[in-house]
Amino acid sequence: MDIYNLGMVSWWESQCYYHALAYLGREGIIICRPSEPYVCLGLHDDLDQEIDQEFCRDYGLPLLRRETGGGVVYLDSRQIFYQVVLHRDNPRLPMKRDRLFNTVLQPAIDVCRSFGIEAELAPPADIQVDGRKCSGNAAGDIGSGTAYVGNLIMDFNFDVMSRILKVASSAYRKALRQAMKDNMLTLAQSMDGIDMHVLELDLIKGFERQFGELNERYLDKEMSDKAVSLKDRLTSRDWLEMPGRRSRLRRIKIAEGLFLQETRMEGAKTFLALIRDGAIEKITIPEDPPRTLRHSEWQRLHEHRQQDNL
Amino acid sequence: MHMKDLVNQPIQCENWLIRENLKYDQNNFWIRIEDRLASIGLSDYGQWVIGDILYLDLAPEGATIVRGEKFGSVESGKWVGNLIAPVNGRVLECNPLVVSEPRQIQVDPYGTGWIMKVELVSDDEIGSLLDHATYVEFIKEQMNKAA
Predict the structure, then answer these.
(1) pLDDT cut 70: percent of chain A above it
(2) Chain A residue numbers touching B51 (CB-CB < 8 A)
(3) Are both A303 and A193 inside the same structural domain?
(4) How far is A2 from chain B, CA to nearest CA, in Å?
(5) Closest Cα partner for A156 from A121, A187, A115, A190?
(6) Distance CA B143, CA B147 (A)
(7) Average pLDDT over residues A168-173
C-alpha cells in the first residue's frame, strides 16, 4: 500500500487527492492537513437547508461537496486527516463497507491511547472518549474505489461551526454550540504541547500495523492533474446546489446517536430536543434567554413524541 | 403484491429470502419483467449488504438509465454507495414511498420497497440477468469470500 504524507496542503487539495486516487483506480493512504479553513458538505447534504451561505461568504470560508457520506463539517489546520482509498476489487474491502471502519479508525484510536486518552470506536464511524466525539469519519464508493476519510481533532472552533449551520434562531444556535461543546472532545483538552508532526508519524505507524508495509510516495503529475480537475467539479455551483436530504423540522447530528432536533407540540411553538439514542435527553425552549422545559410540559412533549414516533 | 407472488413462496438462502419468480443481478437488484416494463428493487441480501438506509437519490422520471452505469446513490450510516443500473431503459416511475422513507426497502424489499419502474429499451434485456438459482450461488460465493 502506498502512503502519501503530504503535511500541510491547501484546503481543496485536502479533499481532492483521495478523490483523484479513487477515480484513477489507484490505492493509497493520505495523511494531510488543510492550511486554510473551509466547509465540506457530505454527498447528500442540502446546501440551502444546511448552510448559512452569507456567513460563509463574509467569513471567507470556501465550500466543497465531497463524494462520501456524513454531514457538513468545518475543517481547518487543527485537524489531521487520514484518507484510505482501496480499489473495489481489493479483497480487504468488505461487501458491507462499514465493516472496514474498525480497521481504518484503529490507528487514530491507537494515537489517542498512546497519550492516555481512552478512545474507542462508536460504531459505525465515530471515535469517542467517555461518550464525547474526537474524530469524524465517512466513506464512499468513488470511481473504481472506495474511500474512507476521517480526522483527528486537535482543536475545534465551536463558535464558527455553530454559525456555519443554518438554524432558525439564536437560541437554536446557542443550544447547538453547547451541545457540541458538551459532546465533543478535542485532543488539546487532554494533551499539552501537541506536536502535529509526531501525531502524523504515529498515525502512519498505526496504518502500517493495519495494512502491512507502506511505500512512501510523493504526489505525481497524474494525481495532481486529476485533483485540479476534480476541484473545479467539487466546488462548482451546480454541484454544491445539487438537491439533497431535507427534513420538515431541522435536525442536526452532533455525534453518533446524538441529534439536536426541532420539534413541535400541537398548536404551540417550536422546541429543541437533544435526542440521544432515540430518547430525549434535554429540552430547550428557544427564548432569550433559553429556558428549560417544566416537568409537565416535558411529559406532554414526550407523549406527543411517542405518538409521532419522532 | 402480485398474485403469482402468493403462490411463489420465497426460498431461504443463508439468512435471506430469495423469490423464485424474479431475475437478479450481481449488484443485488431484483428485476421483474413484464413485456417491456421492468420493476426494480434491492434483494433481501442487497438491503442487508447496504445496511440501515438513510437516504436514496434516484434518476428522475423520464431519465435514461444504462446497464452498468450509475442511476442513483444510497447513504447508509456514514457510507455512500452508487446504485448501478441492471438494465437499459427509461425511468417511468420512482417509488415515492422509498424516496421519502428509504427504510421501507428494508421492511419489504420485494413488495412496497420496490425502487423504480423502467421501460426497457429492448426485449433481450433479460438475457444478461441471473435466475434465482444462479443468484443463490452468487450469494453463497460472496459469503465464502467474506468468511
Answers:
(1) 91
(2) 96, 98, 124
(3) no
(4) 23
(5) A187
(6) 6
(7) 88
Interface with B, mutate which of A49, A141, A146, A148 (most B CBs under 10 A): A141
Q: Is B49 on the interface with A (CB under 8 A)?
A: yes
Locate cell 447513504: which residue?
B75
- ipTM at complex level: 0.86
Domain ranges, residue B97: 27-122
Per the listing, cell 416511475 goes with B93
Say yes or no: A45 contacts chain B, CB-CB below 8 A.
Answer: no
Identify whether residues A192 and A272 lie together within a single domain. Answer: no
Which of the 8 DSSP states describes residue A144?
A: T
Domain count, chain A: 2
Nearest CA in chain B to A150: B78
Which residue of B48, B78, B142 is in closest CB contact with A69?
B78
A280 versus B103: the higher-pLDDT residue is: B103
Q: Is A139 in contact with B78 (Cβ distance < 8 A)?
A: yes
Q: Say if A42 is an interface residue toward chain B (CB within 8 Å).
A: yes
Total domains present in chain B:
1
pTM above 0.95, yes or no: no
Residue of A49, A95, A102, A251 to mutate, testing the B interface (most B Cβ within 10 Å of its Cβ): A95
Name the residue in chain B with its Cα closest to that of A148. Answer: B79
Minimal-distance CA residue of chain A relative to B50: A96
Which residue range forms the structural domain that includes residue A287? 257-308
Average pLDDT over residues B17-39: 94
User: Does B78 touch chain A if contact means CB atoms closer than 8 Å?
Assistant: yes
A218 vs B146: which has the higher pLDDT: A218
Closest chain B residue to the Cα of A242, Cα to Cα: B57
Q: What is the pLDDT of residues A43-65, one digit of tens each?
A: 999 999 999 999 999 999 999 99
- DSSP per residue over chain B, as a string? --HHHHHSPPEEETTEEE-TTSEE-TTSEEEEEETTEEEEEE-HHHHHHH-SEEEEEEPPTT-EE-TTSEEEEEEETTEEEEEE-SS-EEEEEE-HHHHH-TTHHHH-TTTTT--EEEEES-GGGGGGSBPHHHHHHHHHHHHHHH-
Question: CA B9, CA A28: separation in Å to the nearest integer?
Answer: 46
A91 interface with B at CB cutoff 8 Å:
yes
> Which chain A residues are closer than 8 Å to B49 by Cβ?
95-96
Give the model confidence (pLDDT) of A226-247 as tens digits. 999 999 999 999 999 999 998 8
Please check whether residues A298 and A206 belong to one and the same domain.
Answer: no
Domain presence at residue A251: no
Is residue A248 a part of any domain in this protein?
no
Does A71 share its domain with A114?
yes
Mean pLDDT to the nearest integer, B103-117: 96
